[in-house]
Every structure is written in structure tokens, then in C-alpha cells.
Amino acid sequence: MTKQKKLGANASMEFAAAARHFEALGVDVERAIATALRTPLSLHCWQADDVGGFEVREGAVDGGGILATGSYPGRARNGDELRQDLEEVLRLAPGVHRVNLHASYAETDGRRVERDVLAPEHFRRWIAWAKARNIGLDFNTTFFAHPLANDGMTLSHPDRKIRDFWVRHGIACRRIATAMGRALRSPVTLNHWLPDGRKDSPADRWSPRRRLVESLDRMLAASDGVDPRWCRDAVEGKLFGIGSEDYVVGSNEFYAAYALTRKIRLCLDMGHFHPTETIADKISALLQFHEGLLLHVSRPIRWDSDHVVILNDDLRAVFQELIRGNALARVNLATDYFDASINRIMAYVIGARAVRKALLAALLEPVERLRDLEASGRHGEKLAWMEESRSAPLGAVWDELCRRAGSPPGAEWIAAANEYERAVLAQRR
Ligand code: RNT
Ligand code: ZN
């Protein structure tokens, strides 16, 4: 037997043993793998270039509390480099992916195009690329890193003219999202996050919120060139940001109520709550009322909301909730983090693989058994089985999932990412 064949035989024996383990607990392993593979994960484009975007800008701009730290070499400098990087990520992360763009990633051939007049043509390369690769796109309005956002206020700004500009930007993006969705025959989730807030002790927390409601309503009222079949709006709250420590206009409560009353999606970002507050318990509460949710999968560390996602308990708990509640089909999953201090492709792949691994782990949980034990009051035994699940042979099933998707199993992807760094990233000077 050649070494290669031997490894293959070992792998399939390991998978068979793992499958027997889960099946003895009543889990359908084949179904778990299939569901984990076909669940779409929308990959954020902004890890590849530290949320830079391609805009031709004049003057210094405030980042709106979004701050990528680090100066690791290899940042993508244009659309072609970014797409090349994403293709590598798609090779190294198994399963169905979408790509999540920001308005600031428009390609305008060196011309300055204001955000309120952006149009589908500025995304034609992205659309053609997505079409050729049969992947869906998602989209985001960019309400930061712009001279008209330097006050820390956009849609809630006291100046009507500034609000109008941002309302026009929102409408332009809704048209772009519609065009993208229609071209790709796949509805685009258009997420709106804005940095509006105050660093310290606002005397008036009311007026900005009232103005934000009014601006969002105007933005959502636009129907010319906007088709809700292709453009699905979502709003994302936050507790605080850098420079908006005391007050964020679009808080979670604000948007939870707004989204519910306007019948749009609420976005929960895992990094946008108090440092010890997690989102897993919110899902079953919100989904009693909301039709669906957009989840920004991220990892908060102290004051930062956007560390690279890893397979930690918080991530596992989110997917356990989705699977235990049979709610996977009601959420859109999107990664959202940025780290400029490490190999950016690795940052992507670590996060994308962690998300799908957490999903697979949740699908391999003996949910029926846990439920039965709880229903019959055997809480100790339930907890014991939950603990046993932690050391169940997830890795062998994960490797099998990777092989079926044509993606490197186990740690094999790391060598591939190193090779990509040597051949591509290191050449970017
Ligand atoms: C910021 C939000 C938002 C951004 C992206 C770039 O705190 O999480 O989702 O990360 O839009
Ligand atoms: Zn987010």
C-alpha cells in the first residue's frame, strides 16, 4: 500500500468509528454533514484590506470607530487582489459561501464617485466574478470613513442636508443590492450599520434617535429601482464604539423595535454587547417575534468587537441554539472581523472554518436525548451528556466533511496558506 493510500484508509476508518459513536446517540451523521456543507456563510470582504475599500478620497476621514490594528504585509490593494484572496479562502474553507461587500468597495476606475450616486455599474466586476463562480453576494451601506461622517453622526445628524446625503446613500445601496440580487438570482442581504453616537454624556439622547427613525423610514420608503425580492434590508445595533463610548444612537433595543415594526431584519453582532453579554440566549427570545435574524459572527475581546472568530464556547452556543430551536433557516450568517497583525488569509480561513465546525458540532449533538432527559427531570444526566459531547470525535467528521467538499482536511490548509503567502502576498510591496 502506498503512503497516500494508507492515510486514506486510516481516515475512512476514523470517520467510520466517529460516525458509529454519534449514530449510537441517535444522530444522523450524513444529514449533519450535508446540512453543514450547504448552509451559506457570507464572507466579509473587509478582512483582506483592513476595511480600507477602494474609494478615491479627498481629505482625512474618521474611521467611525472601526480600527484595524497591525501592519502585516500582503494587504489587498484593489479589486483584483481582493478577489484573488477570496478565491484562496474559498479553496481552503469548505461549504457554501457568499461574499459580503461594502459600498466602499466600488470600482470606479480612478474616478471619484460620491457615495450618494453609486450605482450597480460600479459593482459590475464583482457581479461578473460572483456569477462566474456561482456565489451569491451580500451588501452593506458605508456610513463611516467619509468627511460627512467626521462628526460621528450620519443618518441622525442634526443638519438636514447631511442626513439627506446619507439617506441618498442608503437608497443608492438598496438599488445596487437589488441589481446584484437580480443578476445573481439570489436575494442580497443589505446591512445597515452606522457609527452615530457620542463620546461623553449627551444631554439629549432623544433627538438623534427620533431623527434616525425618520431617516431610516425615508431610506426604506424608496421603491424606484428597489425590489424587496432581491434586496433584504437589515439593521445592526451596537453598545459602544471607539469615540462613542457613552451613547450609540442605534442601540440593540432601538433596532430590535425598529426592525420588528418595519418588517426588516435585525442584525446581531456577537461583539456589540457588554463584555460578558453573549447573543446565544437572545436568539430564542427574538425569534418569537422576528421572522429572521442576520448574525454577524465575530469575537469580542475587552473593548474590541472584531477579533478573528475561533471555535470557542460562545460560538458553539450560538449554533447549539440555532439547531436545538430548528432555526437555522431563519438566520443569515455572515462573518465580521478584521485583524491586520497576522496573515489575513489565515484570519479568514480560521474564522470560516470555525463557524462551520461550530455548526457541524451543533448538528452532531444528541438533541433528542438531551430534550428527553430534561423533560423527564433528569437534569444531572442531561448535563453529563452535554459534557460528554465536548470530547466527542468531532474532528474525524469534520475532516470527512472537508474531503467531501474538496477542501483540505485537518491542518493541511495551513501549509497551503503559507504557500499562498510566499507566492502571492509577499509579492505585494
Ligand atoms: C461595526 C459593525 C459593522 C462593521 C462592518 C465593516 O461595528 O460590526 O458590521 O464591522 O460593516
Ligand atoms: Zn458587525
Topology of this protein?
Layout: H1 3-24, H2 29-38, E1 41-44, H3 79-92, E2 97-102, H4 124-133, E3 137-140, H5 160-184, E4 188-192, E5 197-198, H6 206-221, E6 231-236, E7 247-248, H7 252-262, E8 265-269, H8 280-286, E9 293-297, E10 299-301, E11 304-307, H9 313-324, E12 331-335, H10 344-363, H11 367-375, H12 379-390, H13 394-405, H14 412-423
Parallel strand pairs: 1-2, 1-12, 2-3, 3-4, 4-6, 6-8, 8-9, 9-12
Antiparallel strand pairs: 5-7, 10-11
This protein binds L-rhamnitol and zinc ion.
In short:
The chain has 429 residues and is an alpha/beta fold.
Tally of distinct domains: 1
> What is the CA-based Rg, rounded?
22 Å
Derived from helix and strand composition plus strand pairing, the structural class reads alpha/beta
Total strand count, please? 12
Q: CATH-wise, what's the superfamily?
A: Divalent-metal-dependent TIM barrel enzymes
Strand content: 5-15%
CATH topology call: TIM Barrel
| Main pleated sheet | 8 strands, parallel, barrel
pLDDT under 50 segments (min length 5)? none
Question: What oligomerization state is this entry in?
Answer: single chain
Give the proportion of residues in helices.
Answer: 40-55%
Cα distance spanning the termini: 46 Å
The small-molecule ligands in this entry are: L-rhamnitol, zinc ion
CATH 2nd-level architecture: Alpha-Beta Barrel
Supply the CATH class. Alpha Beta
- Name the average pLDDT: 97
SSE run: HHEHEHEHEEHEEHEHEEEHEHHHHH
